[in-house]
């Protein structure tokens, strides 16, 4: 006769883990961001790697796109690479798209 694993039952007034969420609570997620370089070897002799692309048909004269993946306005750059570069020793900067 095969034995079946029994379910773990908590004693009255005790629970294993977090109690169930109430109707008004939303589940929480934990996001862990590791501070590590996103540029492993491209032009590491430069203080900050910034590339520019010139295009004739654009609405704005200049748009900066994020390449550090830390921007709060991703895909647009918000300057978060400055803090990222200080924390990691990286040299990543934005991609600048310019109107010709």
From TrEMBL:
Domain Iron-binding zinc finger CDGSH type span(s) in chain numbering: 48-87
Domain of life, source organism: Eukaryota
Cofactor needs: [2Fe-2S] cluster
InterPro entries cross-referenced by the UniProt entry: CISD1/2, FeS-contain_CDGSH-typ, MitoNEET_CISD
Chain spans, region Disordered: 1-27
Chain coiled-coil ranges: none
Species name: Coffea arabica (Arabian coffee)
SMART domains: ZnF_CDGSH
Keywords recorded for this protein, A-Z: 2Fe-2S, Iron, Iron-sulfur, Metal-binding
Protein name, as recorded: CDGSH iron-sulfur domain-containing protein NEET-like
